[in-house]
Each structure stands twice: as structure tokens, then as C-alpha cells.
Amino acid sequence: MINQYLLKEVISHFDFVGSLLKCEPYGSGHINDTYLLEYKIPHMGVVPIILQRMNTNVFKKPVELMENIMNVTSFLREKITENGGDPERETLTVILNKAGKPYYKDSEGNYWRAYHFITCATGYDEVKCDEDFYQSALAFGKFQSLLADYPAEKLHETIPDFHNTKARFAVFKDAVEKDVCHRAKDVQAEIQFVLEHVDLAHVLGDMQASGELPLRVTHNDTKLNNVLIDDKTHQGICVIDLDTVMPGLAINDFGDSIRFGASTGAEDEKDLSKIECDMHLFEVYTKGFIKGCDGRLTDEEIKALPLGAKVMTLECGMRFLTDYLQGDTYFKTKYPTHNLDRCRTQFKLVSDMEKKWDTMNEIVSKYNI
Q1: In order of start, what are the domains of the chain with their CATH numbers?
Q2: Element (H, E) at 113
Q3: Given CA atoms 112, 118, 119, 125 in this order, what sign does their dihedral have?
Q4: What CA–CA distance (Å, rounded) separates 35 from 25?
Q5: Alpha helices in 272-304, H assignment, sequence order
Q6: How confident is the model over 183-208, as pLDDT tens digits?
Q7: What Gene3D superfamilies does the database record attribute to this sequence (predicted)?
Q8: Model pLDDT for residues 70-107, shown as the tens digit of each residue
Q9: Which of 12, 21, 86 minimizes the C-alpha distance to 48?
């Protein structure tokens, strides 16, 4: 828990206007520490602000991370304005500190940043209805479309090899061999599952190297709750949580959405009989994503969307298992086997996708017009 004196120090170094009414923890993110601040401004009412302490154990170069966010949001603001949209609601607005920087480094060495809170919009942790999932797909597809002309190679890698599945596999093997927490003996079935799917760890990298898949600006954490849905129009209006925006593959963004949103159970569901990849939800998302991309993806990228779903699901499960073997140092956990439960749901989804592989490809072909 962050002490109040440190919070006061941080808040005093940002150009917030008005009288502070409230400062409390906010959201359900695994990585950063997030606070909701409310300020009372005369003749304007209450203005909410998001304040975050960046996790520098995960993001080793927070200054480069904020450079990415500033550059991408500035580019998005221009595109949104050109298209007649509202950049105040359709992309994040960073609040500069009093020194004019997009972050503040506190007296203990922590890095903080602040955003305007987008009101009358909600991020959902679970798919409650088809329309919300469809709207998130449109939003992430539009994110690809708007950034299609941005030079992806100029972005920093905020986490090196983040979706380099081959590199993730190497880290996994190292975690198994070192077994620092002596947990490997209890997860042999899960370890074997990864080893049996080693081909998936190489396929996307090989396709990129051969030129089949182009490098793009990617979000890399395309869960449903990273799209804000307007409370009145019920349209997906803003993609948030841009920490992992960097060069990558569009099909990885698609795949991460499917592994999270098309699952019939929670990411940490213990009863694996409840876990399937819902083909109806897969179709809902595929339709929205392809429409949102507005013709900016290549034919090869669209054909590879099911592959992106399977690889991203395996990779995520492998990451959860690796973290479990290493002592739960990356993802926040609520109980000792939390990462293990998470990995098992992902592996169950991979198995289910393999059973439904022909159906997934048929659905993608249906919307690849």
C-alpha cells in the first residue's frame, strides 16, 4: 500500500486544478497501481483524474514508455480530428507535470503519470452481451486502421520480446530447468502441454521473417476492459492502457482478444469443464475487428487470424505457468495457485480451438471480403 505522504508529494507535482475531494484506489489491473482523484472546480463541478504509479519491475524504461504513449496519442488525436471525431473522448489525454513532462519521478524513485478520466464510459471485465464484445472488436480494429500509417519501427519496445513466442518458450524452458520454487514436480502435465506445442512458438516469427506478416503498431493487451464503452450510445469509444503499445503483429492483438473475450469462463476459473472457446463470440469479434480495420490488413493477415488466437492463448498460458514456476513475480496474484489456475484455462482453450479449427477458419473466410 502506498503511504499518504508519498501520494501527497506526487499530487503536488502535477498541474491539477481545483480542490481535492477524493483519492482512492481504482480499477482491476494486474500491473500498475491506479488511483481515482476527484477535484472540485468552481463553476465546473467535479472533475475526475486517473493517477498511476507505473510498475518499473515490469516496465524497465518508463521514460521510453511515456514517449510511446505521447507520440501515439498525438498521432491518434490528429487522425480522430480529421475524421470529425472527439479526441477528448476517443483517445487518452496525458496531463503533464509542473515541469512539463508526461511523468513524475517521486522521492523514492517511483514513476507516476496522470490522465483525464473519460466520463460516462465503462470498461467491462467480462463479456456481458454480444454488442459490447462487437464494439470492442470495432474499437481495436479502428485502432489498427488509425495507426496503419504510423511508422511502427520508431516505437520503443516497452517490454522486449513481449509477444516473441519463441523467446517466451526459451524463458519457460529455463524456468522449468531452474525450478527455483520447487514447483515443477506438481505441474508436469502443464509443462508437457507446452512442450507438445513447441511448433506454435515459432510459427508467427517465421511468418514475419518471410514477409507474410507486416510489422504494425499493436496494443498487445487487447482485453475487453481496455476499451471504454459509451454509457449512452453503447459504442466502443476509446482504447486505453497503452503501456504495451509497440511494434508487433495485428493478429496478436486479435488473438489476445479472443483468448480473453470468447472464453466461456473467467481467466482463473478452476472448473475447466466450464471453459470453451465460444464460436458465436468468435464470430461476433471477427466480424467487428475486420470491419474496424477497414481494409488496412493484408489478405494474409486476415487468413492468419485464427492462428493468432491459438498462439496468443498458448503464449499467455505459458507466461502464467512460467510466472508460477518463478514464484509469481510478474502477475498480481490473490492466492498461491492463482497463476496455475490461469494457465490451465488457457491450455484448455487451446485444446478447444484445435477441435474447432475448421469452424474458426470458415468464420474468418466469411468476413474476408
Answers
A1: 4-119 (3.30.200.20), 130-367 (3.90.1200.10)
A2: strand 111-116
A3: negative
A4: 4
A5: 279-293, 299-303
A6: 999 999 999 999 999 999 999 999 99
A7: 3.90.1200.10
A8: 999 999 999 999 999 999 999 999 999 999 999 999 99
A9: 21
